[in-house]
Amino acid sequence: MDDATERSGARLSRRGGGGAARRAERTATRIEFARFITRNIPDLEILNAEAIEIIEANAEIVLEEIGVNFVENPEALRLWKDAGADVDGERVRIPRGLARQLCKTAPSQFTQHARNPERNVEIGGRNLVLAPVYGPPFVRDQDGGRRYATIGDFQKFVKLGQMSKWIHHSGGTVCEPTDVAVNKRHLDMLHAHMTLSDKPYMGSVTLPERAADSVEMSKILFGADFVDQNTVMTSLININSPLTFDGVMMGALEVYARAGQACIISPFIVGGAMAPVSVAGTLTQVLAEVMAGVAYSQLVRAGAPVIGGAFVTSIDMNSGAPTFGTPEAAQITLGAGQLMRRLGVPFRSAGSFCGSKLPDAQAAYETANTLNTGLLSGVNFMLHACGWLEGGLVSSFEKYVMDADQLGILHRLAKGIDISENGQAMDALREVGPGGHFLGSAHTQANFKEAFWRSSVLDYKPFETWEDEGARDTATLAAARVAKMLGEYQAPDLDVAKAEELNDYVARKKAAEPDSFLS
Questions:
Q1: Both 257 and 296 in a single domain?
Q2: Could you say which residues form the signal peptide (predicted)?
Q3: Inside any domain, residue 355
Q4: 410 shares its domain with 348
Q5: I need a labelling partner for 3 at 20 to 30 A (CA). Which of 28, 92, 204, 268 fits?
Q6: For residue 440, what are the domain limits?
Q7: Considering 414, 435, 470, which residue would you say is the last residue of a domain?
Q8: Cα–Cα dist 147/135, whole Å
Q9: Which helix (H) or strand (E) holds 269?
Q10: How far apart are the C-alpha atoms of 70 and 85, rounded to whole Å?
Q11: How many domains does the chain have?
Q12: Cα 50 from Cα 57, distance rounded (Å)
């Protein structure tokens, strides 16, 4: 195991001699956690200097001449007017250079704290933090098929995230638990993240009041003074592209910014529908929207941590459905990475995106394209890194573990190539010489356990063994992996007094108002 990986879990009993001990080690439950990725490889920069200059200039023109709408938010209009913007009704036109200047107070990197300090993540710089799927109302598994998600499903996904080695973050709305009232489900979701996982998590953004609940529950978990001085949540604030900032999202942003908690300020881009069909036009819109959003967060509280970026997809011009893993989306993601680095804020984009209805070959192709693009583009926070299916309508249990397994490849690629003395392997080359083989060489014996990345899901057995074991496809293997992980789940320790206080807070808040299944 490399030095970036920590192991915890059941202690191994040493029964008898070495053979028994090794058998016990192979069968004992071990929970492995990988540290967030720090890239030792260069970013792929697709925009040349001229293209960057043109896009940045055009984004300033958009802000100054076209402007952006801040709807149903008089306080935002006042703040912009006081900052020197031209406010006409709900339209805000931002003078050239003002938004970029305001963005300078946003930190280029920050720490999000987990309740287990060993799970803290550094967001920004050369780092990549991986978080699971967010938002689908449906779930899918091999036993139950496609169905509306429940709080039980939600809790299972949180447990899978806690048990997944390569996932650094518990996420937020990993699925939408439709069996809980809309006005109360945020409490149950946060409670699950806080108690079933000790990794970082996201807060609620569906109303400012729910964001406030997220802050209060975090104060119970971490302590009020700690939350006042540290970032313990990173939450998703979508921009209603094109060029519209609604009162609900901005209201949640205001709550988090004032509390010093981080927000992902992210346009929701479907090229051809919510942005131009051209890559350069879309990048211009993305940059203008992110600059306006980040600048506004700094008007609320200078120094508030933010992440800029975009959810990017194109559209099928025949059906109108979103498409994923396309070359145009990759170009936008790569270009947006350059623009965010120049803006000086951490970058969010990419994920396990696919339009497939099942965890099949289409899902694998599209997901692989997007994950690799995310790594090469310099993404710092990758939401939807595992579990996404059917254009984001479905959280799939099987695809969750398939994707989470493949995230190990991103960790390995990001390490770069070892050119140490051991990595050069000159001793092995001398030992084996012409016509030999390396299987028995001292270098192979010393390195074979960690030399190659190994999947925990995919099948590499001979045909006869595979057939004897039921000729299982990848989805079937993934279903078995889900069952194994949930069966081995171990809840992280939580202080009893904090657990009781969280339970009491949720119970009081839920009892304070009747159930509502309207947003």
A1: yes
A2: none
A3: yes
A4: yes
A5: 28
A6: 424-451
A7: 414
A8: 14
A9: strand 262-270
A10: 12
A11: 3
A12: 11
Residue with tokens 């998590």: 201
Same domain, 410 and 434: no
Interhelix angle 279-300/247-258, rounded to 10 degrees, is 50
Q: Which residues pair with 130 in a beta bridge?
A: 382
For residues 294 and 375, state if they share a domain. yes
Exposed, middle or buried by CB within 10 Å (0-12, 13-18, 19+), for 45? middle
Please name the residue that has the structure tokens 């995310």: 374
N-term to C-term CA, the chain = 47
What are the CA-CA distances from residue 441 to residues 159, 421, 432, 433, 449 (Å)?
42, 16, 7, 11, 14
Looking at the structure, tell me whether residues 173 and 319 fall in a common domain: yes
Whether residue 242 has a cis bond before it, omega within 30° of 0: yes
In a domain, 509, yes or no: no
Q: Tell me which amino acid residue 351 is.
A: G
**430 and 332 both lie in a single domain:** no
414, 438, 462: which is the final residue of a domain? 414
| Distance between CA atoms of residues 490 and 486, nearest Å | 9
Residue 167: name the closest of 152, 157, 155, 154 by CA: 157
Residues 358 and 438 in one domain: no
Q: Say how far apart CA 478 and CA 518 lie, in whole Å.
A: 35
- Which two tokens mark 365? 């192709």
| Residue 398 resides in a domain | yes
Asked whether residue 380 is domain-assigned, the answer is: yes
CATH of the domain at 324: 3.20.20.480
Q: Are residues 387 and 438 in the same domain?
A: no
For residue 109, list its beta bridge partners: 124
CB within 8 A of 403, min separation 6: which ones? 352, 367, 371, 385, 386, 387, 388
Of 372, 354, 374, residue with least CA distance to 363? 354
Confirm if 242 and 273 have CB atoms less than 8 A apart. Answer: no
φ, ψ of residue 489 in degrees (nearest 5): -55, 135
519 residues of the chain, pLDDT tens digit each? 344 444 344 333 333 445 655 555 555 567 889 999 999 999 999 999 999 999 999 999 999 999 999 999 999 999 999 999 999 999 999 999 999 999 999 999 999 999 999 999 999 999 999 999 999 999 999 999 999 999 999 999 999 999 999 999 999 999 999 999 999 999 999 999 999 999 999 999 999 999 999 999 999 999 999 999 999 999 999 999 999 999 999 999 999 999 999 999 999 888 889 999 999 999 999 999 999 999 999 999 999 999 999 998 888 888 888 899 999 999 999 999 999 999 999 999 999 999 999 999 999 999 999 999 999 999 999 999 999 999 999 999 999 999 999 999 999 999 999 999 999 999 999 999 999 999 999 999 999 999 999 999 999 999 999 999 999 999 999 999 999 999 999 999 999 999 999 999 999 999 999 999 887
